[in-house]
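QA checklist item 7 of 12: single-chain prediction sanity check.
[x] sequence parsed
[x] length recorded as 211
[x] structure emitted
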Amino acid sequence: MYYRCTEHTNYNLAGNKLHDAFESVLKGLSFSTHQVQFIKETAKALSIEPLKLKKEQHQNKIKKLHELNEKIFKLEERLMNNEIESSTYQTWFQKFKEEKAMLEYSLKGNQPSKIRNEDELVDRILPNLTNLYEIYQKSNITQKHTLMRGVFKDNLVWGDDMFRTAFIDPTFNDNLLKVKQKWLLFNEQPFKVLGLSPVSTRCHVHDESIY
């Protein structure tokens, strides 16, 4: 299998060579077990406060619903005791009824996730990042394009016997250095070190067929 250059139509590239190089790039960018563990711990820590806030908001709505039911009960009690006119009852009952419907609707679609469930999701999904190429191989064509855009943001090109890209997601900065040292991938616009990498624990041949 050969791929034809879109700029120099008389120049063809061996498919096996591109496929092998592409596999090496994705495997080189894959996170180590240590990096995945760091991401897992960070993700879990960042999810705690939002989940707590969501749970508090949920509990406050339940409290308001109980208070509203109590108001409706007292309103009906006053009507039965002839303390208020029927028209007054209807006015307030309609108001309470609408408020109750809104609260119940909000509670129905806003069930708070349990922290344990969120942690289980992180533990199940993130370890797959230790092999990006395996994820790529198991994906359909749409998922493959999504993965490529997520990692490189721009079309991947081949030139000077290696892959090149104008941009790569900063999450992979640490691993990009290792891949560059093996002459597998060159970032044509080197990233600027603005601080810690998101996963760091330390202070033109164009071809769309392969993806």
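[x] summary fact logged: The beta strands are 2-4, 12-14, 157-159, 162-165, 185-187, 205-206.
[ ] second reviewer sign-off
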